[in-house]
Amino acid sequence: VNGNEAAAQGLRHPVASILLILAGFGLIVSLLWMVRLPANYQETATLALSARTAGQIVAQPVPDDPAPLYFLAVHGLEHWLPAKLTMLRLVSLACYLLTLPAVYFLGRWASGDERVGILGAALVGLSPFMLWYSNRGTVYALVALSGVVNQLFFVAILKQKQWAWPLYFVSAVLALGVHFFYLAVLLTQAIFVTVNVRVLPRRTLALFLACIIFLSAVVAGWWWYSPLHAFDWRQLPFTARPIPTNAFILVVQFVYGFQSVVTTTLLIALWPLLVVVALLAVQKYVRPTIAVQYLAFASFVPVLLVFVFSWVAKPLYLSSYFIVCLPAMMLLFSWVLVAFELEVLTWVRTVLLAVMLVMLAFQILHPDTALRGDYLGFAKPQTINLLCCQHK
Amino acid sequence: MRSPFLEAVEAKRLLAVDLALAVVYFVMLLVFFQRGNPWLFWALIAGEAFHLWQLVALVHGVWEPRVKHDFDASFAPPVDIYVTVAGEPVDIVARTVRAALRIQYPDFRVHILNDGLVAKKENWRDMERLARQTGAICITRRTPGGAKAGNINNALRTTRAPFVAILDCDHIPQPEFLSRMMGYFVRNDVAFVQSPQYYRNHATTYVANASWQQQTLFFGPICRGKDHFDSLFMCGTNAVIRRRALEDVDGMQQNSITEDLLTSLLMHAKGWRSVYVPRILAEGLAPEDLGAYWQQQFRWARGSLEVLVKYNPLTLRGLSGHQRVQYLASATFYLTGLVVLIDAALPLFYFYSGQIAVSSTTMALAMIFVPYIFLTLYTLQLVSNFAFSFRAIAFVLASWPIYTWALITTLLRIPSGFKITSKERGHGNYLWLAALHIIFILATVFGMGWSLWRDGLTTSWVTNASWAVLYVVLFLPFIRAAMSDRMAERIGYDQLELPAEELIRER
Questions:
Q1: Chain segment A155-164, per-residue pLDDT in tens
Q2: What residues contact residue B503 under an 8 Å CB cut-off, 6+ apart?
Q3: B177 — phi, psi (to 5°)?
Q4: Beta strands in chain A (DSSP E)
């Protein structure tokens, strides 16, 4: 239930203004600073991979990112725009701009509170992590957007909106087509539905099961169509097995971006403050909706799943993959910060946004630091060889 | 009247996961990390063991929130209603007595148990006058001793009904007070039936609000759980007791300042049963200022700790295993004060000596601790049907000086009399009651500066500073409660925000 319906109605116009300001801010940061960054390894690889024919892109997927949709999209755009780095980065920037209103609606739908959507959009919009990938010619900005859109429809399903089912299914296929890592989010949704099996109506459970079966069929079809089933998975990008520090680094990177090792370590050391936040969030008779509970799941369960997978099967932990968790995590923070009805928390929100801005400035002024958190920083020679083979 | 905190909420899966995480965290802390100063390490371990015990007891209690008791609405034996008074304002007593006289029940009499004379209160004659005006019976005690328990035992000697209902003088009963409770006595082995305390003044002051928020967890899931194991104890008011059961334990126990807890314990040890009615049947007054809150909490803490020392539930004959766990949980709750003191002091030890309890280079400890604490808070919220709050947690933890003082006086056997919680608000400033909290904050600020100068900006400094901030945040509501309203307004501390109706907001 929205705190005050009348106030919410009156806020419509400011919402649009705030989203426009955020978008304008992102554009300015991009145009003034980010687009000037030199091409990195992934961007070069993306240009090369998408320069192939559509048939080749589909028939010969890249093993470390076998989902072909992003390369196909870039390939398609080449007909209208020159296939240059700027075009790639503009695609990412466009994804960023579309992500902001999507996050706003996701937060508003999930919590029923406009303020959660606004603060969530602000946190995502100002996240140095998000801005970094929104200015890189890589798949990750699209991963974030497709993830938010799919979760938007998942939340609509949780709110018993029947129209959302086909859109949910299509968006899930597309998100999975953009990046295989989205499987972790879909698994999270399946776990969430399983955990809430007593709460959700039977029809929802049946339709969700049907979606899972269809999605599995799509994935299986793609698997057998492509040469991936014959691929030696040991050749996937080599990353070390994650340790708990990685999970905390991830949260720090989401909020404060790619900083120096010293700064990141000091920021991680602030972890007891999470307990403060948790304590302050215990508010009388404020119960998270089922959709907000899902946001909590979507923030952390994929990380947990990848941790387990990395230790049990194959290390698969790259912070860039987790961009798909960023909007949900920021919306969860927003929900907590909005749930506080203490005057002092206005200051907490303001300080948090201000610190994020400062850290963004640090990241912009030290772009080389950011590369450490990027794909290349984790890549080992065998990965590079693999990708080079695909170039040929 | 039903209120959300009284609804039964089942959360078995969550409780199991939370407990498992707590065990993993405790074992990891004990075994896997590099130990620092041994004294600090074992102090930390002792504190964490206590937290683990509290969680075990909570899970044990709230695991099965639904209990079914036999109830016969036609069972209506005579009842004597005792309104206990010891010098409280006559208008407060009058409201309760008039409401008691309006109770809809076939056979009952209302007695004012007037202890004003032995307590040397000036208004003791007013109670006799009130009784004459209203038609109640006044029993004025002439021989002192035994405080409230002595007052009740005195009345037991002059009344005859097989059941007695106890009401504190500020607890206004609803017309169905007896009809909702007496039916449970159809079983001959039920000694007492207890209904929750509800503070009708919970929206009046900061302290009253915090007191009320604390009570919701106890009178919600905890009492339901105790009911399941016949280990509910009487809470001083809003209870009906079988005279025979009381006589079986020689009346209300006069040798404890929490006579209700001890009497219940002895009744259960003799095989009597109890029933909890999760329905608001009487509305009372919470302490409205920190002085009254301190007095109330000290009495509860001292009484409970005395029970632990003198009537250890682990060794008392006649109790079942479940009853031992639940009584032990109640009696040990007030050791929280000592544990908070230890935990809050750990960052200060680092600031001033550089000594730490445990060292972790990876974030493995935090990786377990953060989900554990988040899940514990969410579980508490869920089982209390979201009635629990930060303010309640903060007040419990910030009450460490009260609980620690109660522990010291218990161990040293320093005498402590029964002091009635004031029913009127004091308008002063009680900052002296928060002196230790203020000293902690000053020591933290100075210590942070000192250690920063000594060691520079290190991860140890940041983590210890963050822990210290956690305790500062927890102590702030208590300090706010100690201030006069005018002072709080002047510094811009948040105003009381209370929903007019207690409704759950989903968002």
A1: 999 998 889 9
A2: A285, B4
A3: -50, -50
A4: 286-287
* Pairing state between β B108-114 and B172-173: unpaired
Chain B: give the shortest CA distance to residue A338, in Å.
Answer: 10
Q: What is the mean pLDDT of residues B180-186?
A: 96
Q: Would you call A127 exposed, middle or buried from its count of C-beta atoms within 10 A (0-12, 13-18, 19+)? A: buried
pLDDT band at B158 (very low <50, low <70, confident <90, very high): very high
CB contact under 8 A, B459 and A282: no
Q: Which residue of B has its CA nearest to A277?
A: B470
CA B408 to CA B403: how far, in whole Å? 9
ipTM over 0.90: no
What is the pLDDT at residue B495?
Answer: 45
Residue B228 contacts residue B67 (beta carbons within 8 Å): yes
pLDDT of residue A136: 86
Q: Assign A24 a pLDDT band (cuts: 50, 70, 90).
A: very high
For chain A, the average pLDDT equals 82
Contact of B222 with B330, CB cutoff 8 Å: no
The DSSP string of A261-300 is HHHHHHHHTTTHHHHHHHHHT--TTEE--HHHHHHHHHHH
- Which residue is closest to B214 within chain A, CA to CA? A284
Quick check: B467 and A272 CB within 8 A? yes
Q: What is the mean pLDDT of chain B?
A: 90
Whether B386 and A287 lie within 8 Å, measured CB to CB: yes
Under an 8 A CB cutoff, do B367 and A247 touch? yes
**Residues B57-113 pLDDT 10s:** 999 999 988 889 999 999 999 999 999 999 899 999 999 999 999 999 999 999 999
How many CB atoms are located within 10 Å of the residue B221 CB?
A: 29
8 Å CB contact of B393 and A279? yes
Q: Where are the alpha helices (DSSP H) in B311-434?
A: 321-332, 336-353, 364-383, 390-398, 400-411
What is the pTM assigned to this prediction? 0.86
Is the Cβ pair A344, B494 closer than 8 Å? yes
CB B61 within 8 A of CB B326: yes
Shortest CA distance from B378: residue in chain A? A282
Residue A107 has pLDDT above 50, yes or no: yes
Q: Which residue of B has its CA nearest to A345?
A: B494
C-beta separation of B102 from B179 below 8 A: no
User: A283: nearest CA in chain B?
Assistant: B389
Cβ–Cβ of A271/B366 closer than 8 Å?
Answer: yes
Nearest CA in chain B to A195: B13
How many angstroms separate the CA of residue B364 from the nearest CA in chain A?
5
Tokens 């208004």 identify what position?
B123
Q: Does A230 touch chain B (CB under 8 A)?
A: no
Q: In this complex, how many residue pairs, one in chain A and one in chain B, have their CB atoms less than 8 Å apart? A: 122
Q: Residue A14 CB: number of other CB atoms within 10 A? A: 12
Rounded distance between C-alpha atoms, residue A43 and residue A344, angstroms: 44
Instruction: Name the residue with tokens 């079966």.
Output: A213
Over residues B429-440, mean pLDDT? 91
Q: How confident is the model at residue A13 (pLDDT cuts 50, 70, 90)?
A: low
**Gap between the Cα atoms of B120 and B126, Å rounded:** 13
Q: Do B388 and A282 touch (CB under 8 A)?
A: yes
Cβ contact (<8 Å) for A1 and B507? yes
What contacts A368, CB < 8 A, 6 or more positions away? none
User: What is the least distance, in Å, from the CA of A113 to any CA of chain B?
Assistant: 7
pLDDT digits (tens, 9 = 90+) for A275-322: 988 888 887 777 888 999 999 999 999 999 988 888 888 777 888 889
Closest chain A C-alpha to B225 CA, distance in angstroms: 21
Whether residue A383 is predicted with pLDDT greater than 60 in this model: the reply is no
User: Is the per-residue pLDDT at B182 higher than 50?
Assistant: yes
Whether residues B377 and A268 touch (CB distance < 8 A) is answered with: no
